[in-house]
Specification:
Layout: E1 2-4, H1 7-20, E2 24-29, H2 35-47, E3 50-55, H3 75-85, E4 89-91, H4 95-98, H5 117-120, H6 124-139, E5 143-147, H7 151-164, E6 169-173, H8 193-199, H9 201-214, H10 220-232, E7 237-245, E8 262-269, E9 272-279
Parallel strand pairs: 1-4, 2-3, 2-5, 3-4, 5-6
Antiparallel strand pairs: 7-8, 8-9
Length: about 280
């Protein structure tokens, strides 16, 4: 496995692979890798000849009230996980390599990025799309991988790719969950046992909604009300949003169609923000 820290070197490798007709896959991350992200790398390695894992802590994805310094980083551990999962290259540029002095160009998706997480984090997806556009230009992948837990992010990137004619295919990999049902994520690492019990209300609410949909409930508001009730029983859980949407457009649905609707939610567990979703 190769470590690349500069844009020119990454572009040189990408040009070589393109000339050879190799299938290149991109797995964009911000480092601090966990088992859910290694599943993305393994899925990419199973389908592509070359897997590039970007481990770039993107400052554009953080709002002024969000401390980037609090984001855990362990490059040695990240690289070991990448190697074990089948990565070909870890692309780990410093901030000044991706955003040099006087950088002032941004990519903004105007529709899918506004609801859900976009309401409380209005600049977040601008950071996602700007960085992803740069990575797509640098790496020139045939496919790019996201986890289903971050379905809104995958939808925004897919729309950007389609609108700007990048040509890469977005692959969404099923969410990896711990044995107790909590979706794997970096934020889980700081939970005390009692906080983790509070957080388990999220997969419990999603599972209940899925069961209700399977039993024939087709009214989204009924499922949302039940999920809200389950989360509301936890003293340290504060709901940010719960919605049932089309997985591609992220638009709210009027009727639950089994297999074609996604329940998405976000909540604060004390001071930790979690997101999760489940196909109904």
């Amino acid at each position: 496995m190769q470590i690349v820290e500069t844009v020119p070197e990454m572009k040189r490798l990408a040009a070589t692979w393109r000339a050879e007709g190799r299938h290149v896959a991109l797995v964009p991350t911000m480092g601090g890798l966990h088992i859910g992200q290694t599943a993305l790398i393994r899925a990419a390695a199973a389908q592509a000849e070359i897997v590039v894992v970007a481990t770039f802590l993107n400052p554009l994805q953080f709002a002024p009230n969000e401390l980037m310094a609090n984001y855990p980083q362990d490059s040695a551990a990240d690289r070991q996980l990448c190697a074990e999962a089948g990565a070909t290259v870890v692309f780990a540029p410093p901030v000044e390599e991706m955003y040099p002095a006087a950088y002032s160009t941004y990519v903004i998706e105007e529709t899918l990025a506004k609801p859900l997480c976009g309401v409380s984090r209005p600049t977040h997806f601008r950071g996602v799309t700007t960085l992803t556009a740069k990575l797509l230009n640098i790496v020139q992948p045939r496919s790019v991988y996201f986890g289903q837990k971050t379905a809104p992010r995958a939808a925004v990137v897919r729309k950007m790719i389609r609108d700007l004619e990048f040509g890469a295919e977005v692959i969404v990999v099923p969410t990896v969950r711990d044995p107790d049902g909590l979706a794997c994520g970096l934020n889980n690492r700081g939970f005390t046992p009692s906080l983790r019990q509070e957080a388990l209300a999220i997969p419990r609410a999603l599972t209940k909604a899925k069961e209700m949909a399977a039993s024939g409930v087709r009214i989204p508001d009924r499922l949302i009300a039940e999920a809200t009730h389950i989360l509301g029983q936890q003293r340290r859980v504060r709901v940010i949003y719960i919605a049932i949407v089309n997985p591609t457009t992220m638009e709210p649905v009027r009727e639950v169609v089994p297999g074609e609707c996604l329940m998405v939610m976000s909540a604060w567990i004390d001071e930790t923000r979690l997101i999760d979703c489940m196909l109904l």
